């Protein structure tokens, strides 16, 4: 093994100490380690002074110096744009959505997803305002500790870490189900192990590798989503092997609304309610864009663009997808009901694939399943990233063991990545249980955690807004607030009230006559009570207090962002414009990179 190889392995697996610390939000200090073990501290120069200051005898302060021992800002605008889209489009949009169609019918599914987009959009706007103001690592979790209460921040961070971590085994289990669409004669442990190794390699070497991987995988998701919408349109007007112009036939027969659990009006309402609850699982919020804030190049310009695309994304992919599913297949289709009742593997449970089978389309289901495989892989990769960065953010603020904050030379919190990947081992539960049962457990856990996270975000925002008012920070100042939420604080209050109600409603079926199940109850509600217990325990043990608005720290980290922007624009001005090839020009037009 050569010295270069050994050095590369060392760069990946051995963390390096941070050189730069950011103090009080107003000054940046460089900590220099001397041979005798003593530290000296030196302030970075003001922007009108010489940029370089010696950090030791051989190195000077550059963007690399600022990043050593911390995560690196390497994600470009195009990475963030596609992560924002791809991170929210999972296999559930194409497969699990069938449960909503069966339970509520096409109209209930369409209305349920459409209406749930409203609180999601409100939560996104509230989160975007905070994150774009202070784009640091784990921004909304850090803001919860600074503006509300340290115990509240611990609760919010733990809840989000569980949310993202539990989705890793979900996607691993789903990936295995998709493989069963083609063959069964293999051990589920093989694809699980291969995926875990792949996630480790993508996430541990450099954040730019993660960004590039997600960029291309997200393009595949977009192609699949748009392709299935086009499939719906062309086949409904007769462009199919049967020349069947079926239009909105399935909305008329068996009808737009299904009864669920009960009969009559109550049954139809319960069908609609099940679709709203499903929508909470299908539709992700602003978390994925928010979690890359600390690793985004020029974040105060890049992040607002990604957040502003949310309304388009919700309308096109989720509302459009719900409409298409209700068009292509009947909610009473025997193949659909059989696939859901018997846990038919992979794309076999997808309404689109069932429609293709009904229309005698042979090859397309295999193409769809292949693209679903890439979607499942991409989603698991995104969850690994978000989980590790959440743990990193908790460790950086002393709310998790400090070694989880250690980064390698590539700016990756390697121990956090390993800890997050440990959750993937839960996917091996399917070796002893039906994979569909494991998926149901995780779906219930995720739904409760997602709703809790949304509620905590809205509360954090209102405390943040109070702090801005108390400290005389003008939200109308566009130099500080590059993104402003609409109709605040009313939008955040209404959204918070809605998601709080659904936190307790989402598992109501377990209390119906004959439906009691200990496992279902625990996965629906245990995380909520655990969050409350964590909050109380931390508050009692650490004796924390709710933070007064005038004492909230909403400035620490601004100096790092300002210094990054200064170095970024200085380099942009001093370097000649890079010559772009064909794809580079396309990227410039689409993403501004």
Description of the molecule:
Its main location: membrane. Keywords: Amino-acid transport, Membrane, Transmembrane, Transmembrane helix, Transport. Belongs to the amino acid-polyamine-organocation (APC) superfamily. YAT (TC 2.A.3.10) family. It is found in: Membrane. The protein has 593 residues and is mostly helical. It has a single domain, classed as Amino acid/polyamine transporter I (Up-down Bundle), CATH 1.20.1740.10. It contains 22 helices and 3 strands. Strand 2 and strand 3 (39-43) form a beta hairpin. Helix 4 runs antiparallel to helix 12 (299-308) and helix 4 packs antiparallel against helix 13 (310-328). The longest helix is centred in the N-terminal third of the chain and has 37 residues, at 97-133. It is globular and about 65 Å long. It starts with a helix and ends with a helix.
Give the radius of gyration.
Answer: 25 Å
End-to-end Cα distance: 39 Å
Instruction: Characterize the overall form.
Output: globular
Question: Strand order across the biggest sheet?
Answer: 1-2-3
Please provide the ordered H/E string of secondary-structure elements. HEEEHHHHHHHHHHHHHHHHHHHHH
Tell me the β content: under 5%
What's the tally of helices? 22
> Which class of secondary structure composition applies to the elements?
mainly alpha
What is the level 1 CATH name? Mainly Alpha
- Please provide the count of β strands: 3
Work out the helicity level: 55-70%
Task: Enter the CATH topology name.
Answer: Amino acid/polyamine transporter I
Main beta sheet? 3 strands, antiparallel
């Amino acid at each position: 093994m050569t010295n270069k190889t050994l050095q590369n392995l060392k760069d990946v697996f051995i963390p390096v100490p941070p050189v730069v610390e950011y103090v009080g939000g107003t000054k940046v200090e460089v900590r220099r380690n001397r041979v005798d073990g003593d530290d000296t501290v030196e302030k970075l120069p003001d922007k009108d002074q010489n940029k370089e200051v010696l950090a030791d005898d051989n190195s000077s302060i550059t963007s690399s110096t600022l990043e050593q021992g911390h995560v690196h800002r390497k994600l470009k605008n195009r990475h963030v744009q596609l992560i924002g889209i791809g991170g929210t489009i999972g296999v559930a949009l194409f497969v699990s959505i069938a449960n909503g169609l069966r339970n509520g019918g096409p109209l209930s599914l369409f209305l349920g997803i459409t209406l749930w987009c409203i609180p999601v959009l409100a939560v996104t706007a509230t989160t975007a305002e905070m994150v774009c103001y202070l784009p640091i690592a784990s921004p909304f979790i850090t803001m919860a500790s600074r503006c509300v209460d340290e115990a509240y921040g611990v609760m919010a961070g733990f809840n989000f870490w569980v949310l993202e971590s539990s989705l890793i085994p979900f996607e691993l289990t789903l990936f295995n189900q998709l493989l069963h669409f083609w063959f069964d004669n293999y051990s589920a442990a093989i694809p699980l192990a291969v995926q875990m190794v792949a996630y480790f390699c993508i996430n541990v070497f450099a954040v730019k590798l993660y960004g590039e991987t997600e960029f291309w995988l997200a393009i595949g998701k977009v192609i699949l989503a748009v392709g299935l919408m086009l499939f719906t349109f062309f086949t409904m007007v007769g462009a199919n092997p049967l020349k069947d112009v079926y239009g909105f036939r399935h909305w008329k027969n068996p009808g737009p609304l299904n009864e669920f659990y009960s009969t009559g009006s109550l049954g139809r309402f319960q069908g609609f309610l099940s679709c709203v609850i499903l929508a909470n699982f299908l539709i992700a919020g602003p978390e994925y864009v928010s979690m890359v804030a600390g690793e985004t190049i020029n974040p105060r310009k890049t992040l607002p663009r990604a957040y502003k695309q949310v309304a388009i994304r919700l309308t096109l992919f989720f509302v459009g997808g719900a409409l298409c599913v209700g068009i292509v297949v009947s909610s009473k289709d025997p193949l659909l009901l059989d696939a859901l009742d018997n846990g038919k593997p992979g794309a076999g449970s997808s309404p689109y694939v069932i429609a293709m089978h009904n229309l005698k389309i042979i090859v397309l289901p295999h193409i769809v399943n292949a693209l679903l495989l890439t979607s499942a892989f991409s989603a698991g990769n995104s969850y690994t990233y978000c989980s590790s960065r959440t743990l990193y953010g908790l460790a950086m603020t002393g709310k998790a063991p400090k070694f989880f904050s250690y980064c390698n030379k590539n700016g990756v919190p390697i121990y956090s990545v390993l800890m997050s990947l440990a959750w993937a081992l839960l996917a091996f539960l399917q070796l002893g249980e039906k994979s569909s049962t494991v998926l149901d457990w995780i779906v219930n856990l995720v739904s409760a955690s997602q709703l809790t996270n949304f509620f905590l975000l809205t509360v954090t925002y209102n405390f943040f807004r109070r702090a801005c008012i108390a400290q005389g920070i003008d939200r109308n100042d566009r130099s500080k607030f590059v993104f402003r939420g609409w109709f605040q604080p009313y939008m955040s209050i209404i959204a918070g009230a809605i998601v709080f109600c659904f936190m307790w409603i989402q598992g109501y079926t377990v209390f119906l006559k004959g439906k009691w199940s200990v496992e279902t109850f625990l996965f629906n509600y245990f995380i909520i009570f655990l969050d409350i217990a964590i909050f109380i325990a931390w508050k009692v043990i650490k004796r924390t207090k709710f933070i007064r608005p005038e004492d909230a720290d909403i400035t620490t980290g601004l100096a790092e962002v300002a210094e990054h922007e200064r170095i970024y624009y200085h380099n942009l001005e001093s370097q000649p414009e890079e010559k772009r090839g064909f794809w580079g020009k396309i990227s410039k037009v689409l993403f501004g990179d």
